[in-house]
Amino acid sequence: MATDDIRTTVREKYGAMARAGSSCCGPATTGCCAPAADPAALATAIGYDAGDLARILPEGANLGLSCGNPGAIAALRPGETVLDLGSGAGFDVFLCGPKVGAAGRVIGVDMTPDMLAKARANTAGYTRRTGLANVEFRMGEIEHLPVADASVDVVISNCVINLSPDKPQVWREIARVLKPGGRVAVSDMVLLKPLPEGVRAAIEAYIGCIAGASLVDDLRAMMAAAGLADIRLTPKPEYVATLTAGDDPLYREVAAALPAGSGPADYITSMDIAAMRAKACCAPGCCSG
Ligand SMILES: C[S@@+](CC[C@H](N)C(=O)[O-])C[C@H]1O[C@@H](n2cnc3c(N)ncnc32)[C@H](O)[C@@H]1O
To answer: Can you give the pTM of this predicted structure?
Structure first.
């Protein structure tokens, strides 16, 4: 599929999920897209604090589309500026808001108009619950971030970069917007070994954050080429384990297409992806000096 066709399909499918208010864009039996019959249960299974979810999140912000907990690896401090790539209905933006406090800011970027509308509509509920007005949502592609150079302390993202048709460009953009010394705290799906062609070519597997995932070594190389340093990749097997054990329709279909004796966890995992933009100049084009 051409780059623009991938983006259009991703936008259409995630727009449908935003309008449906859940993670499924079709009958559950089609396994058409991402997981989570019970978004709160999935979130706690992948490390979110149930108390935070109940206290901070407005209704409808958790669509069950996350595969990790980037806020947990970000070590956020009051006053910091955080950027969430592919912010969806605002899930991690709202959960990070209280961590940076009134002096900080969390900016969400998403290319899907219906997701953006949902996140913006959810903002009033976040402010009512927390008393904070420190979040905003911008329309944009993560390959062309609507954010100034060297203006962000921490880039987070949750199960989004795998969906990009131009991942090296996403990592260059991350390096561009980070301040020198700024941090990357991303959760995403990553391949442990190449998927069979039948899975790689399935659009449902692409939308469901499986077929577009990078191999671990390719991911590391893209991050390094963008000028990021101190790269740490940590597998978080609980996400795939939860979906497989829960008989998620997409994971069931993928499992059926894999060689006998193997399962999704042999091929794909959620990972915590941490790095920083070096303080000194690191690579052509990514540093201002
Ligand atoms: C799997 S959902 C994750 C949403 C959110 N991070 C969460 O955890 O709830 C992917 C989101 O990324 C957005 N997205 C996918 N590709 C994108 C791109 N190239 N640029 C901007 N947003 C993108 C989609 O519109 C969707 O809202």
So the answer is: 0.93
* Predicted confidence (pLDDT) per residue in 115-143, tens digit: 999 999 999 999 999 999 999 999 999 99
pLDDT at 161 over 50: yes
283 part of a folded domain: no
Counting the structural domains of the chain, the total is 1
Q: Which domain holds residue 54?
A: 3-277
DSSP 186: E
Q: Is residue 94 part of a domain?
A: yes
Angle at 216 between CA 36 and CA 254, to 5 degrees: 40
Any ligand 1 atom below 6 A from CB of 275: no
141 assigned to some structural domain: yes
CA–centroid distance, 278 to ligand 1, in Å, is 27
Q: Which residues contact 9 (CB under 8 A, 6 or more apart)?
A: 1, 203, 206, 207
List alpha helices for the chain, DSSP H.
3-20, 39-45, 50-56, 70-74, 91-100, 113-130, 167-177, 197-200, 203-207, 216-225, 238-245, 249-257, 264-267
CB–CB of 212/161 below 8 Å? no
Examine residue 282 and state whether it is found in any structural domain, yes or no. no
CA 285, chain centre distance (Å):
25
CATH for 150: 3.40.50.150
Pocket test residue of 11, 12, 14, 82 for ligand 1, highest count of atoms within 8 A of CB: 14
Q: Is the CB of 122 under 6 A from ligand 1?
A: no
Question: What is the rounded (10 degree) CA torsion for 188, 189, 191, 192?
Answer: 80
**Ligand 1 and 163: CB distance under 6 A:** yes
- How far apart are the C-alpha atoms of 208 and 189, rounded to whole Å? 10
